Here is the input.
Amino acid sequence: MAKAWGGRFEGKTDPRVETFTESISFDARLAAVDLCGSQGHAKMLAQVGLLTVAECDAICRTLDEIGGEIARGEFRFSVELEDIHMHIESALIARQGDVGRKLHTGRSRNDQVATDLKLYIRDAIARVDGLLADVQRAFVERGSGDLDVIVPGYTHLQRAQPVVVVHYWLAYCEKLQRDRERLADCLKRVNISPLGAAALAGSSLPIDPDISAALLGFSAPAANSLDVSSDRDFVIEFVNGLALIAVHLATWAEEWILWSTIEFGYLQLPDAYTTGSSIMPQKRNPDVLELIRGKSARVMAAVPQLLLLVKGLPLAYNRDLQEDKIALFEALDTISACLELAPAIIAGARLNRQQIAARLEEGFLDATALMEYLILKGVPMRSAHETVGQLVSQCESKACRLADLPLAALQAACPNIMADVSQVLGVHNAVNALRSYGSGGPASVAQQLAIWKKRLAPQQ
Ligand code: ARG
Here is the structure.
């Protein structure tokens, strides 16, 4: 097969080089955006008079036909044609002859591939945003039913202070909201059109990058052809955004793995998302959550992979850049698979209310509430801290709770303690006492849940 760039060559390409340099095995998935980008480019060429309207129509129609064949799996791919751009262009030329040979006017594969990637990532941002919203919705939807469940909040994985369990659900929502905002911000830079940069220097032809940018829904054409044809910042930003989603999902997965152990006993994961053991009949393993945690490595690894790929590359296009798609697609596919499974796990998990409640009074979850009570009674914070520490130590030696100490013992430790101390002791009092904005107390959490419901309601 003759190469599109074969004019200056006499010898044939070594077949091993074809295999080594091809990207069609992984960039075929850019077909739809490549066709779309080419149609935008062709329409621009027609508007500036570099194609006739009839030529442009023939090109666009044929590109649609090719797109249909690719979508139906009827299109033949071959490594000799290197990449998706060459496949589509040579199919166009095979069908349209000289008219097809005009499509690449004022364009290079360098601005073409950058355009494809931007169109692809633009769609991907919309899809991932939707998946993130589905996960948030799953937490919010189960929230109303969980408002009466109090759990220990942990620091250092040690029992710390009580919170309404929905505070956990909304904590994940906040993290995923930042992920959505990061992607939305990334979109601003994705949405600058590379078309017009051509190989690296622009073109002497009367092309109009404003037109192709507008036709493809970009906010503007790039102001520097050298920059935009070498720029992969947007891929790295996007994948970095995915990596943070992976961090958040891994945290959630890890917590729910712990919460579903007998040691914690807080959660029962849905049958459909747990698996058994091939040898131990009683086992119920959280494999899906473990793999969400495990697969996060692939997403995170794509960030250093891309940074290493671009580090030290001179301007403008270098073939190294072809490898960007490997990391991009791996990260995107992996995070998408995780996000797609998460809502059903969230919706289907059952809280073991009785088991959680049975051990809630262990671990002095009300100690901080008692300390804050003392502060309100005029005791300096550090002294209050020390007093409560001593009381906890007394309780430990007597194997009792703070609430079990007689008032006289409390007053012996600190004369500022009054009978109303009973209103802050015990986990329920302690959680009800939480009142600051953003806190894990029932009033604050209910207020935040209402805000989340409104935020996630489908836009009219
Ligand atoms: N397959 C190439 C890539 O993905 C397309 C650009 C090739 N450009 C070139 N001048 N060889 O990066």
Residues 110-196+226-358 form a domain with the Fumarase C; Chain A, domain 2 fold (CATH 1.20.200.10). Residues 191 and 218 are 5 Å apart (CA to CA). The beta strands are 150-155, 158-164, 192-193, 220-221, 267-268, 350-351.
